[in-house]
Every structure is written in structure tokens, then in C-alpha cells.
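FORM 7B - TANDEM STRUCTURE REPORT

SECTION 1: FIRST PROTEIN
SEQUENCE AND C-ALPHA CELLS:
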Amino acid sequence: MELEKLIAENQIKLEDIPHIELYMDQVIQLFENAFASTTRNEEEKVLTKTMINNYAKGKLFFPVKNKKYSKEHLILIALIYQLKGALSINDIKSLLNGVNTGTEEGKMDLDHFYELYLDLTKRNVDAFKNDLENQAGRAAEEVKGLNEDQSAELEKVLLASSLVHMSNLYRKAAERIVDDLKNEGDHK
């Protein structure tokens, strides 16, 4: 497994975001440059006009002015990009609702919030490296004594299955948090 490619720095940092507003094609190019190494194959697109338009129609971020995307829009699109791998569009909208409102009203320092997010992702990478090594070791241990012709394949199947299980647990925990936010919003 190409561990280094898997955990490569694949975030858009604040310093990567230009201090000028961008048109959609420029936004797409920025994301392609930042996340191209994370795609499974060359046909897979990181971000498309349709995706951005759907995010806008779904009100996942506050309205764009004059077809130009601000730094805040780019931060929100970067968050959406990361979240969409595990959460539904409706869940992402619920999760980012307060962030969007606070940013649009000038009551939230989105740059600072995003820096906190980036710091957590760096810590997550370190934890992931350790956990992946432990999971791989456990999978190798579990297949000992099985048919040697199949042990390498079975080890990979077992490891992949275990990782998917962990992913599902994390996704379910994130969905619970989204549900809690929805319920808190309903009670206000």
C-alpha cells in the first residue's frame, strides 16, 4: 500500500488561496492542483461546475456575488469537498449552516476556524498512520495458519474490511453529531 500517497498533504491551506475573488474555472483549477493526487484514476474529477452549482443551489455556502468566489467561499468549498466523502449533501448543509450564517453576517472568523480544522487534520494523519500499522499487523496475525497461497490476498481483504468498518463507525458518529445540531436548531 502506498501509505505516503494515501496520507499526502491534501488540504488547501490559507496561503494557497489567492487574495482576489476567483471565477468558477479558476476555483476548479485551484482544487484540481491541490487534490489531483487524491483521485483514484485520471478520469475522476476533483470538482466540476455542476458540483459547485449544486452546492450553491443547495445553499451549502452563502450566495456568490458577480459570479466570483471569495476566500470564504473557497474555504467552505474545501470543507464541503472533505465532508462529501462521508456525509450526505443535506448533512453537510446542516453541519455548515451556522458556519455559513456566521461568516455571511461577519460574526465568525472563518480563517481561524479553518486553521483549527487544518490543525486537527494534521493530528488525524499521525493517528491514522499508527492505527493503520496496528490494523495491518492484526490482519497479518489473523491470517497466519491459513492457506499460504491465499494468505496475502486474505490479509488484504481482512484489512480492507476492517478499515471500512472503522470508516462506518466514524461516519455514524459524525451523522450523530449532525443530528444533534439539527435537534438543537429545532429547539431554538
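SECTION 2: SECOND PROTEIN
SEQUENCE AND C-ALPHA CELLS:
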Amino acid sequence: MTLVGRTRARGVETLSLDCPHNRNALSAALVGELGDALTACAEDDGVRAVVLTHTGNTFSAGADLRDPPPPDALVGLLRQIVRVDKPVIARVTGHVRAGGLGLLAACDIGVSSLDATFAFTEVRVGVAPAVISLTLLPRTDPRALARYYLTGERFDAPEAARIGLLTAAGDDVDAVLAPVLDGVRRASPQALAETKRLLAARVLETFDRDAADLTALSARLFSSAQAREGMTAFLERRDPAWVL
């Protein structure tokens, strides 16, 4: 079964996360297939830019708790999005949770509809937003991130744009996206590649400095007793034992 749909129009390759039965959760298989699709886009001179979108009502629900990718595989995918020498533009028309927010922050530009919602739910299942911090911390307002990391609160698209998680949001996401795509189609491939390298440099420094430590932290937390309780409670649709 194909987990990532691919279409192309005037040099823009659209990659669609297409696993709506589990809300496009980041399974090992989905992470691997998306990485392969991005590699193909990077090697194809006919691709000027990549749009990353989704089917169903959820961009991504975060890690697949039944088949999670190894932390280093998710690190590799996030780094690949940041490093690929073509703009990657997120198009969101649904909900984004946990690891899905790291995927969104890895993209160079993010646009969404106004009915999209966002939440860092890790603390509610006994883990921390460790690996995804590699893309989030360099690009998002630190005070807002502290609030949403620590509370797991849900927030809306205008707030996501205010704190730097999104570039823009609007009633019609494709109307928001249109001038972005027009811009990259008018830009030279060489200029896009070099400009992206300028923009990505500080984020890649974070990967070089912190990826190993955050990967180890993620692995340790996911194997902990509190994480087992939190994930079991989530799957059983009940509160975990620590809720007051």
C-alpha cells in the first residue's frame, strides 16, 4: 500500500501523507516512504519545489504508538527536509499533533486553513517533544513554545502563525498558497538552492549539536514506565494514572 501520494503541476511536486485510517501517524513505514519520495524530488531537475500535504482531517497525529519509527529515523527525515536544496512548503487543512509539528516546522514555509488545530501532546502521554525540538526551537517563539510544550494545550491557526510555526493562515488555504507557488516558479533553481542554504544553516547547526542527545532522550522516555502508562491510557481512551 502506498502511504505517500505524488502529483506534479508546473514543477511543483505535491507529496500527500495518505494514511488517514490512523490520522497520518508517523509510522516507520510512512517515515521511510516520505524520505524516499523526498530523495527522488531532490534528484529530479524537473522539481522546483515540494508541497507537503495530507489526506483526511489530520496532517499528522505524531508518532504511531503501535509502530513508531526509531528516533534516529525521524531525525533523519527532519534533517532531510531542512537540507534538501528545494523549498518544502507545508499545506495543512486539518489537525497537527506532537511529532507532526516537528514535520511542519522542518518545512521552509507553512500555510493552513483557519480550521486547523495544533497541540504538543507529548507531556500528556509521559514523554517530551525531544527530537522535534531540532526544528521547532530555532524557528518558533520560545515563550509560546514553553507554554504549549508544558501544558499540551490546543491552539489555533492564527496563534500558530503568530508564534512562527506557520507562515500564514486563511479561510482558503489554496488562495494563501497560490502566491507562494507563483514566487518559487519565478525563481531560478540556483537561487532557490543557495537561499535555502542560508536559511537552513542555523537549524542544521542545532542538528549537529543536539541530535544525538535528543535522540537518546527520546529513546529513554519512550521506554519508561510513565510512557507505557500514558500510551496505554491514550489507546484505552482514559486518563493516565497521574492526572489530578
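SECTION 3: OBSERVATIONS ON SECOND PROTEIN
Residues 189-222 form the longest helix (34 residues).
DSSP finds nine helices and ten strands in the chain.

SECTION 4: SIGNATURE
Preparer initials: ____
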